[in-house]
């Protein structure tokens, strides 16, 4: 009987160890799962999913397409849907209630108008980039066009400009020609495009003698060359603001994307396309 008792006790001790070991394994696994869940809910472990729509100026087309590729690779649960056009046309879309999350304008004028109408989240707006206004001619052109003043001379028969009512590049161009005292002469020769990329295409196809675009547009094409930069002080600074639309239904993801745009990685890409950070 004594031996039998010892055997029973020994078996019980083994079963106790087994139960303790199982409990520890389950407890450890639960803690790890909890920590993982917490990590996924905040901080760098954030893993949000969804799509945001960005209305962006036409001059941002190339750089934004690259930024989209980079951002979506780093944030596999997020999709960026870009729609490009003149800043004025995009402003109108927002005013008419088009569903979107972020507005990325080529000028302060359109952003300020939307801000006044309470259609933007004021605190989200950032002046992100700066650009330059340039006159371009078809590559290899022998027209002799070398300055903005030349636009009023006989060597220019047709000049491509953005529609000043809705295209910031067209508005800047009018400021330049006004400061030079030749706006009326230039307007008599002007062919107006719906956005700055239309003007660039006209110059590429030699459909106009010259055109006024952004420096960054000129850098994207091997079919044009810069004839001149706008004279210093002849127009407002070309500032690109970005901000979250008040009616956005994806403000958290939109805010994270704006933070990305301000960061070093995105700014390096912007600089590769000829943009500079606002001082």
Which architecture of the largest domain per CATH?
A: 3-Layer(aba) Sandwich
**Unreliable stretches covering 5 or more consecutive residues:** 1-15, 17-46
Helix tally? Answer: 10
> What is the β-strand count?
11
Q: Main sheet?
A: 6 strands, mixed
The CATH fourth-level homologous superfamily of the largest domain: Periplasmic binding protein-like II
Task: Name the beta content range.
Answer: 15-25%
Global geometry: globular
What is the radius of gyration?
29 Å
Encode the helix/strand succession as letters. HEHEHEHEEEHHEHEHEEHHE
SSE-based structural type: alpha/beta
Q: Round the mean pLDDT to the nearest integer and report it.
A: 88
Task: Please list the strands of the largest sheet in the order they lie side by side.
Answer: 2-1-3-10-4-11
Helix content: 40-55%
Euclidean distance between termini CA atoms: 92 Å
The CATH first-level class of the largest domain comes to: Alpha Beta
Multimerization state:
single chain
And the CATH topology of the largest domain?
D-Maltodextrin-Binding Protein, domain 2
Please indicate the count of domains: 2
Can you walk me through this structure?
The structure is a single chain. By secondary structure, this protein is an alpha/beta fold. It has 10 helices and 11 strands. The chain has helices at residues 2-41, 61-74, 87-95, 108-116, 168-179, 183-187, 196-204, 215-219, 251-262, 264-272; strands spanning 50-57, 78-85, 102-104, 126-131, 133-138, 159-162, 190-193, 210-214, 224-229, 238-244, 276-277. The longest helix has 40 residues, at 2-41. It starts with a helix and ends with a strand.
């Amino acid at each position: 009987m004594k031996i039998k008792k010892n055997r029973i006790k020994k078996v019980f001790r083994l079963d106790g160890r087994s139960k303790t070991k199982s409990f520890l394994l389950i407890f450890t696994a639960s803690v790890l799962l909890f920590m993982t869940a917490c990590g996924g809910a905040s901080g760098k472990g954030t893993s949000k999913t969804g799509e945001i729509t960005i209305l962006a100026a036409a001059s941002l087309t190339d750089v934004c397409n690259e930024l989209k590729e980079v951002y979506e690779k780093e944030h596999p649960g997020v999709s960026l849907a870009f729609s490009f056009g003149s800043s004025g046309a995009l402003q109108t879309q927002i005013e008419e209630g088009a569903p979107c999350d972020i507005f990325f304008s080529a000028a302060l004028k359109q952003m300020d108008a939307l801000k006044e109408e309470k259609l933007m989240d004021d605190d989200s707006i950032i002046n992100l980039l700066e650009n330059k206004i340039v006159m371009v001619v078809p590559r290899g052109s022998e027209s002799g066009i070398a300055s903005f003043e030349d636009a009023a001379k006989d060597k220019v028969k047709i000049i491509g400009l953005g529609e000043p009512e809705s295209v910031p590049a067209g508005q800047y161009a009018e400021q330049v020609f006004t400061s030079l005292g030749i706006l009326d002469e230039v307007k008599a020769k002007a062919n107006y495009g719906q956005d700055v990329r239309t003007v660039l295409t006209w110059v590429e196809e030699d459909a106009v003698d010259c055109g006024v675009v952004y420096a960054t547009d000129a850098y994207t094409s091997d079919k044009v060359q810069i004839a001149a930069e706008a004279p210093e002080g002849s127009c407002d600074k070309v500032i690109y603001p970005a901000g979250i639309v008040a009616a956005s239904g994806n403000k958290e993801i939109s805010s994270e994307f704006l933070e990305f745009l301000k960061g070093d990685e995105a700014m390096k890409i912007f600089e590769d396309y000829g943009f500079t950070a606002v001082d």
